[in-house]
Write a structure and sequence with these properties.
The protein is of the alpha+beta class and 414 residues long. The protein folds into four domains: 118 residues, no CATH class; 70 residues, no CATH class; 110 residues, Immunoglobulin-like, CATH 2.60.40.680; 82 residues, Sandwich (Immunoglobulin-like). The chain contains seven helices and 21 strands. Strands 5, 6, 7, 8, 9, 10, 11, 12, 13 and 14 form a ten-stranded mixed beta sheet that branches. A four-stranded antiparallel beta sheet has the order 18-17-20-21, with no helix packed on it. A hairpin with a 5-residue loop joins strand 17 and strand 18. Helix 5 packs antiparallel against helix 7.
Length: 414
């Protein structure tokens, strides 16, 4: 059978061989089963016996081969491949198959191919726009760089699809076809990133941006529970890509209203893209991104790509350790929401490392709950108080250390 499979693979790829393993309990080794067919084919299907009811012949036996045409109709059930001795029809009668007058199975397969007509013919289109050896009519990938959706146009849809490829995790995410990924890879380096987005934008706008080489300074600072990323440069940049280990769905950008900031969390990673559909540079060559809850992020959790207006990578420098923004005072900063039911967030700042106690008192001055009590480093913090077990009324939130105290009033309304 291997020889026939190889023959038809060359003769006409419309002929496909599928093997059903009906006798799995027979004394055949795994190697014997696995050696059937050409590498990568046929598809081996294990079934539970139901196929017998579909394919048994007029002698109530299971034939060795079943031939199915392009209409998914059984046309013959042969005992051997080289001699088509069983040409009985599928209704159990002994009528000869219409259009077949004998011969071996390869003859019958050729008859079925002829009967199939143009549907089973190799592509006859002589136009090959992308030069890949496949006629345009039969080519499911035009291989036109930047035309990610294969509509033979470069437009905003190609930008959107390329951005979505990046947000899905890039090449190999499983969400896009190899053709889409290849067409999005403008620089043909095997990766799809912000550099490709900028190059596609230039292709659409017919931009001829002036090449600018240079670097960008990247600073990373923790601000309480958040992380602030700032990118500064002496040259223009119009796109950036950020990959973060961890899930951070809430991000914001400073003072760049013309920039699209999009992100997606997938498989424990956050993918971020910032760009202008008109390829306008970031204002004052500066970008500031706040990552809510990112205070636990380490330098090794970040990967940053910054693009020039020509779609070339700018070197990131000064990406050292993450700095800590130190508040200059001790005290509660907010209780929100207020009034609340049943939880509220309590925020405060510490200007030095110290042991603190965050407590709740009722109107009589009785301490009714301790929200937190332990050592903390200088910084900004937010804790949640759950008052589900407390009655409606006025409560006082108090923050104490060895040398400082701060208090705010909160109203619980149930």
């Amino acid at each position: 059978m291997d020889a026939h499979e190889a023959y038809w693979a060359e003769q006409n790829p419309a002929v496909v061989f599928i093997m059903g393993l009906q006798d799995l309990n027979q004394p055949y080794s795994c190697e014997q089963w696995g050696n059937q067919g050409v590498s990568g084919a046929p598809v081996i299907v294990e079934h539970d016996g139901d196929l017998f009811n579909l394919f048994h012949d007029s002698w109530n036996a299971f034939p060795t081969y079943v031939l199915i045409d392009h209409n998914m109709q059984v046309r013959a059930k042969t005992w051997t491949y080289d001699s088509n001795s069983n040409s009985n029809s599928c209704d159990g009668t002994n009528a000869t198959m219409p259009g077949f007058s004998g011969g071996d199975t390869d003859d019958f397969l050729q008859y079925l191919v002829d009967d199939c007509g143009s549907l089973c013919e190799p592509c006859q289109d002589t136009n090959d726009s992308d030069g890949d050896g496949i006629g345009d009519e039969c080519d499911d990938c035009h291989n036109l760089l930047g035309d990610v959706n294969d509509d033979m146009n470069h437009d905003i849809l190609d930008i959107v699809t390329t951005v979505n490829i990046i947000l899905a995790g890039g090449v190999g995410s499983g969400e896009f076809t190899e053709c889409e990924e290849a067409d999005a890879d403008m620089d043909s380096n095997g990766a799809v990133n912000i550099l490709d987005v900028i190059q596609i934008i230039n292709l659409i706008l017919n931009n001829r941006a002036i090449h600018e080489s240079g670097s960008v300074e990247v600073g990373i600072a923790k601000e309480g529970l958040d992380l602030y990323l700032h990118i500064d440069s002496q040259v223009n940049f119009s796109g950036l890509q950020l990959q973060i280990n961890g899930e951070y769905p809430n991000l914001s950008m400073d003072d760049n209203d013309h920039i699209n900031l999009v992100s997606r969390v997938k498989n424990g990673q956050t993918h971020v893209i910032a760009y202008s559909a008109d390829n306008e540079p970031f204002k004052n060559n500066f970008a500031g991104i706040n990552i809510t809850g990112g205070g636990v992020i380490e330098r090794s959790d970040l990967n940053i790509i910054v693009s020039s207006p020509t779609g070339e990578a700018l070197t990131a420098v000064n990406m050292g350790s993450i700095s800590q923004t130190i508040p200059n005072q001790f005290g509660l900063t907010s209780v929100y929401p207020n009034p609340f039911n049943p939880t509220t967030s309590i925020s405060f700042t510490l200007s030095a490392d110290e042991k603190i106690k965050l407590s709740v008192f009722d109107v009589r001055g009785n301490e009714v709950d301790i929200v937190f009590s332990d050592n903390l480093n200088a910084g900004e913090y937010t804790f949640t108080w759950d008052a589900s077990d407390f009655a409606s009324g006025v409560y006082y939130i108090q923050l104490n250390s060895a040398s400082h105290s701060s208090m705010m009033k909160a109203l619980l309304m149930k």
